[in-house]
Amino acid sequence: MNNPSTLVIIPTYNELENLPLITGRVRDAAPQVDVLVVDDNSPDGTGGKADELAADDDQIHVLHRTKKDGLLGAYLAGFEWGKERGYDVLCQMDADGSHAPEELHRLLDQIEDGADMVIGSRYVEGGKVVDWPRDRFLLSKGGNLYISVALGTGLTDMTAGYRAIRREVLEGIDLAELSDAGYIFQVDLAYRAVEAGFDVREVPITFTERAIGESKLDGSFVKDSLVEVTKWGAQHHTTQATELASELGRLAAYEYRHSPLAGLGSKAKNAATFVSDLAGELGKLAKYEIDRKVRK
């Protein structure tokens, strides 16, 4: 796709080593697109390095923010910057190399074909994950299955952060209302796009665990996200929510019992216990939401 009005937004916080690598790969793989680095006042000098890169390449731009207030805040700032300058397509990409710039064309090809939002999916046919522990993979895939069923979107990877989005989607959704619970805004944005009637598609990607630096994620965001999604599912599918939570709880328990995790000792038992407890809590929450709605 040869679209000069495409902007790739790359949020950064302490990505000094990764930033030159990822921007170089984007420029090599898609020389027609512009890059915006949104740096949250990184103490390791990432912002200064971004300025150096921008000075040498007029297709690289930098937006400095004075504080670190989360990935959603960085993307909202990047979206606003891009919309003000007339970009037609705004893309999300991680700085750590987990999203391959060499696959960006898959997302942009679908935009050119008429899609409004395209998600790079780990779980659609042809997608895969490299260098993840099996328990993390199963928890992520199972969580996305829960989200897809609960919200009825048919999408396999609504938590994914590799995306191409037409500006019309961002202008047609109240971005100020996106949930800031953990990383659930990725799900929220995709769900709102589907509900608004936009054409949301998925393409397969290979997601690779970062090789340099430490992940910004911790396990709590999974539970926070699923609890939030259960609330939405209860609001939109009140008659099915309790049964859904119960069935998925049984499915999660079955999958863990019959997966290789069953032979991995205490770590697997802890993961299985977490999933079982989580399913129980989600079931209780779904019932509470339904009862509360009925009482109104």
From TrEMBL:
Residues 8-171 form the Glycosyltransferase 2-like domain. The keyword Transcription regulation does not apply. Gene3D superfamilies: Spore Coat Polysaccharide Biosynthesis Protein SpsA, Chain A. Keywords: Glycosyltransferase, Transferase. GO terms for molecular function: dolichyl-phosphate beta-D-mannosyltransferase activity. The keyword Cytoplasm does not apply. PANTHER family: DOLICHOL-PHOSPHATE MANNOSYLTRANSFERASE SUBUNIT 1. GO terms for biological process: glycolipid biosynthetic process. SUPFAM superfamilies: Nucleotide-diphospho-sugar transferases. One of its GO terms (cellular component) is membrane. Its EC number is 2.4.1.83. It catalyses: a di-trans,poly-cis-dolichyl phosphate + GDP-alpha-D-mannose = a di-trans,poly-cis-dolichyl beta-D-mannosyl phosphate + GDP. The lineage of its organism: Bacteria, Bacillati, Actinomycetota, Actinomycetes, Mycobacteriales. Transmembrane segments: none annotated. This is dolichyl-phosphate beta-D-mannosyltransferase. It holds the Pfam family Glycos_transf_2. Belongs to the glycosyltransferase 2 family. It comes from the Bacteria.
